[in-house]
């Protein structure tokens, strides 16, 4: 069986198609197709408060492409979720409805708490009994989740993200709210380890010279941020080979990860290859199982 997840973020929209594998009672998902396209919906919403006709047209075309890919792969079940940009857009719901009528793709506009829960459902599988601060930085929002003994103690979504910072549209006082939340929730008497998800931290992690498959340090993240910031936008694209829509937001995004880690006292960060799309896939599979047993 093949299932799919569509994640429509503030910077890009992603489609992942996976085959469901069963091995000795253990279920896993094998990626067979992954497409990422830089819609940059956050530019419209954080500047004008709504999505423009051009953004609607491009999103509609992309959903048509994604639908065709799912048909070619004979996907049986899928879910499409939109996050910060579309949920903050004054015309987000009506555009989602028009896209549904034009493409057949039903877009679920999820709130920050739902977004965090979907990501957490897969991230928690990579944790142990220690204290972890999960940092998920998107284009329009940042979700923080605190874990001890594999149990989530608290979480919060903040209106600050890579595209929002780039546009200078972060919510007033957002930095202070993050620091206050960390001060109120992180147990400073225990070691805290950061867990980073999101496209920018994954790219930074891949650029860092590292000995671990999943872990790097705050010092390495800072060093790489300073290194990238030393290049012009054009050189980031041509010399560092970053995609254009990654080249301009990677430094603002890294500033969020670095600030959160410093405030929390975290010296190490785990970067699992997981994100919202993985949480959506898991939810799709769980819903299929519930329907089959109904």
From TrEMBL:
A single MF term (Gene Ontology): pyrophosphatase activity
Membrane-crossing segments per the record: none
Family annotation (Pfam families): Ppx-GppA
Domain spans labelled Ppx/GppA phosphatase N-terminal: 29-281
Protein name: Phosphatase
Organism for this UniProt entry: Rudanella paleaurantiibacter
């Amino acid at each position: 069986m093949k299932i799919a997840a569509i994640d429509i973020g503030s910077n890009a929209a992603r489609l992942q198609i996976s085959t469901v594998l069963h091995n000795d009672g253990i279920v896993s998902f094998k990626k067979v197709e992954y497409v990422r396209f830089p819609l940059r919906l956050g530019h419209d919403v954080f500047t004008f408060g709504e999505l423009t006709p051009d953004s609607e047209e491009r999103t509609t075309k992309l959903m048509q492409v994604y639908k065709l890919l799912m048909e070619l792969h004979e996907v049986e079940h899928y879910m499409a979720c939109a996050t910060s940009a579309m949920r903050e857009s004054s015309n987000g719901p009506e555009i989602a409805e028009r896209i549904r009528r034009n493409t057949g793709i039903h877009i679920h506009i999820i709130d920050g708490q739902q977004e965090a829960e979907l990501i957490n459902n897969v991230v928690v599988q990579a944790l142990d009994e220690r204290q972890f601060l999960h940092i998920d930085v998107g284009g329009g929002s940042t979700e923080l989740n605190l874990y001890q003994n594999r149990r989530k103690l608290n979480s919060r979504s903040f209106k600050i993200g890579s595209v929002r910072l780039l546009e200078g549209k972060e919510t007033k006082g957002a930095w202070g709210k993050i620091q206050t939340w960390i001060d109120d929730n992180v147990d400073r008497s225990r070691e805290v380890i950061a867990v980073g998800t999101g496209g920018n931290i994954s790219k930074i992690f891949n650029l860092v010279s590292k000995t671990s498959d999943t872990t790097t340090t705050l010092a390495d993240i800072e060093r790489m941020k300073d290194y990238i910031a030393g290049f012009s936008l054009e050189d980031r694209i041509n010399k560092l080979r970053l995609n254009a829509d990654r080249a301009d937001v990677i430094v603002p995004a890294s500033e969020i990860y670095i600030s959160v880690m410093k405030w929390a006292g975290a010296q190490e960060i785990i970067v699992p290859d997981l994100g919202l799309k993985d949480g959506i896939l898991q939810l799709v599979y769980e819903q299929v199982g519930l329907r089959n047993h109904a």
